[in-house]
């Protein structure tokens, strides 16, 4: 999966910038910036669109790609790929299991799963590859109710604000409005 929103492109200035930088300059709302960065982290890594580098949340904080204000949330989103540590047993558990046990808020878990679906499929936490929603259900990564919910496009969360049109959109809708960076091929808002 590489079809995620990597950064922001300002056509009038022919300039690209990171999502966090765009937020700091007032081009994106903090809520939209967080959703876009969480979608990157939930897909395996954060991307520096200027250097075309893939970074962990810890590396992104160290290089200034993101600020401390988003760090804990991005670490949590990164767990959608790496799994979560169950605090009582120390075992690795999936995003859905973490949600069921109350370690992750349901709305947040759904947003992370939606980002994975939009960028290529649910990430199998055991084998680290993308799988369709139905296969994830068959492997017991979530229950039938969650499978049906995620399979219905009408249920997608409208958590992204399009700064160009001032509409609230789903991540998938906003993704479709992006343009590829001619230098890197990364999708830019």
TrEMBL record:
> What keyword terms does UniProt attach to this protein?
Phosphoprotein, Repeat
- Any one Gene Ontology BP term: wound healing
* GO MF: keratin filament binding; structural molecule activity
Q: Sorted alphabetically, which Pfam families does this protein's record hold?
A: Plectin
Give the SMART domains listed for this entry. PLEC (SM00250)
Cross-referenced InterPro entries: Plakin, Plakin_repeat_sf, Plectin_repeat
Assigned GO CC terms: cell junction; cell projection; cytoplasm; keratin filament; membrane
What domain of life? Eukaryota
Protein's name in the database: Epiplakin
User: Which organism is the protein's source?
Assistant: Buceros rhinoceros silvestris
């Amino acid at each position: 999966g590489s079809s995620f929103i990597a950064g922001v492109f300002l056509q009038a200035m022919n300039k690209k910038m990171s999502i966090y930088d765009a937020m700091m300059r007032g081009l994106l709302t903090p809520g939209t910036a967080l959703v876009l960065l969480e979608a990157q982290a939930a897909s395996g890594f954060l991307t520096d669109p200027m250097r075309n580098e893939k970074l962990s949340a810890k590396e992104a904080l160290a290089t200034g790609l993101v600020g401390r204000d988003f760090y804990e949330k991005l670490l949590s989103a990164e767990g959608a790929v790496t799994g979560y540590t169950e605090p009582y047993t120390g075992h690795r558990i999936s995003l859905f299991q973490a949600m069921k046990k109350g370690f992750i808020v349901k709305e947040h878990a759904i947003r992370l799963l939606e980002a994975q679906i939009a960028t290529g499929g649910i990430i199998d936490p055991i084998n680290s590859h993308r799988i369709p929603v139905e296969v994830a259900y068959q492997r017991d990564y979530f229950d039938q109710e969650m499978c049906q919910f995620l399979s219905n496009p009408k249920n997608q969360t409208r958590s992204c604000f399009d700064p160009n049109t001032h509409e609230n959109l789903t991540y998938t809708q906003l993704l479709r409005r992006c343009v590829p960076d001619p230098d890197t091929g990364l999708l830019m808002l």
